[in-house]
Amino acid sequence: MKEQNGLSKQRLFHLFNVSSSGYYAYLKRSASQRALFNQQLDNRINSLFELHHGLYGYRRLHAELLGEGCCLSRERVRRRMHKLNLKAKQRRKYKHTTDSNHNKPVADTLLDRKFKMNKSNQAWVCDITYIKVNQKWLYLAIVLDLYSRKIIGWAMDIHMQSSLVYQALTMAMLHRGYRSKVIVHSDRGSQYCSDAYQTILTAYGLTCSMSRKANCWDNAVAESFFHTLKTEWIYQHKLENIAQAKSMILWYIEGYYNRVRKHSHLNYLSPIQFEEKMV
User: Fold this and answer.
1) DSSP annotation of 182
2) Distance CA 50, CA 185 (A)
3) Disulfide engineering: 88 pairs with which of 26, 36, 57, 221, CB 3.0-4.6 Å?
4) DSSP letters along 64-112, please?
5) pLDDT, tens digit (0-9, with 9 covering 90-100), for 180-197
6) Is the distance from CB of 125 to CB of 222 less than 8 angstroms?
């Protein structure tokens, strides 16, 4: 009988009052239990990975499992995903452009890249992006609450006129109960400098803030949302027509991003979960 730390296995069995057959049965039973748990864990990881359309890596899947009461390490989830050959969809490069070639008045930068708020409706950020749909363009304007990162207003159309950002801001105010004294930040695009947009800001007592010229980092949170939308969702699908594109974007914003997708900035809660928890 080989020694372990100066004691034979028989001596250990005697000290702890267990039989050798009982000890080996325990080892066999533990291995079976671990295998059963790993099988159940793998099945759940597969289900969650599919539920989130292959968008979640091991960090967000780990957060999902913790939320379900499953106590395990992030590293274990990473190992199981590797064994299952599950990899989150790769993000493609994303480039944003803004048309600020105009002579309309612009506002000062009030946020100064301070994007962390301690309550909702302190500051909203706005932006426009474009999405190519079968040789056509679809434009999306959004309004995002910096506190929870929730998209509170949006509008889509085949043009990027000032009415697009007007509609997105109107939706945001409707959803937030027509708040006043909110800092509303955007870039210096002509739509945000238009008379129609500026009139609605003034009428409801909203404070206009704009990024510095040619400085996308001043509106980094809105830029980040568009990057996430495009690389996680839009670039993963072939868009056949404008109606399909609108439907997919609507689902991503209202059905997935706001309600389900865990946000690292929010301690891996979705925007709606974060707002509900902080009430």
Assistant:
1) -
2) 36
3) 57
4) HHHHTT----HHHHHHHHHHTT--PPPPPP--------S-S------ST
5) 999 999 999 999 999 999
6) yes
d(CA 233, CA 253) in angstroms, rounded, equals: 11
pTM of the model: 0.70
Does residue 90 surpass a pLDDT of 70?
Answer: no
Instruction: Report the SS3 class of residue 120.
Output: coil
131: closest CA among 213, 52, 248? 248
Over 50: is that where the pLDDT of 109 sits? yes
191 burial (CB, 10 Å; 0-12 / 13-18 / 19+) is: buried
Handedness of CA 250, 251, 252, 254 (dihedral sign): positive
**Calpha distance 248→237 (Å, rounded):** 10
Instruction: Render 138-154 in DSSP notation, one character per residue.
Output: EEEEEEEETTTTEEEEE
Q: What is the pLDDT of residues 13-61, one digit of tens each?
A: 555 555 666 656 655 666 677 777 777 777 888 777 777 777 778 788 7
Residue type, 106: V
- Count how many residues are written for the chain: 279
Within 10 angstroms of residue 222's Cβ, the number of other Cβ atoms is 27
